[in-house]
Amino acid sequence: VQLQASGGGLVQAGGSLRLSCTASGGTFYRYGMGWFRQAPGTEREFVASISWSDGTTRYEDSVKGRFTVSRDNAKNTVYLQMNSLKPEDTAVYYCAADRLSFGRNGKYYDYWGQGTQVTVSS
C-alpha cells in the first residue's frame, strides 16, 4: 500500500486546513487509518485515527473538538480537518495504515505516507 499525504501549508493561528491521504495498491477499506505528527526535536505523536469497519474515531486530547478525521472508502482517501489551529500544531503530519486496528501507537501501523508540513503562525 502506498500512501500520499497532501494539504499542508502555512496558516495563521485560528485558521483551518484539511489534510488528505490517498491510498493505492491495497484494499484501503479494510485498513484502520491514523494521523500522526512530529515537530522538530520531538517524538512522533498520535493525532487521530479511524476504524475501517464502522468509522469509530479516536483523538489525542489536545486536538479534540478542533480536528475531525473522516474517510471516503470510494476514493481511498482519509481526511483530517483541522480547525482553530494553534502554533503548537506546527509539525510534519503523517498518515498511516493499520491492517488490524486503528490504535494510538504508531509502531503497530504497517504503512506510512511521506508527510506533509503544517505551519501555524502566531
Kindly describe this structure.
Helices cover 0% and strands 50% of the residues. It is mostly beta strands and 122 residues long. The strands form two sheets. Strands 2, 4, 5, 6, 9, 10 and 11 form a seven-stranded mixed sheet that branches. Strands 1-3-8-7 form a four-stranded antiparallel sheet, with no helix packed on it. A hairpin with a 4-residue loop joins strand 7 and strand 8. The mean pLDDT is 96.
Quickly describe the structure.
With 122 residues, the protein is mainly beta. It is built from no helices and 11 strands. It is 0% helix and 50% strand.
The counted number of beta strands is 11
What would you call the shape? globular
SSE succession: EEEEEEEEEEE
Determine Rg (CA atoms, Å). 13 Å
Average pLDDT figure = 96
Largest sheet: 7 strands, mixed
Count of runs of 4 or more consecutive helical residues? 0
Q: Determine the fraction of residues in helical runs and give it as a percent range.
A: under 10%
- pLDDT under 50 segments (min length 5)? none
Strand content bin: over 45%
How far is the N terminus from the C terminus?
Answer: 37 Å
Classify the secondary structure makeup into a structural class. Answer: mainly beta
Which descriptors would you attach to this protein?
single chain, 122 residues, mainly beta, seven-stranded mixed β-sheet, four-stranded antiparallel β-sheet, globular
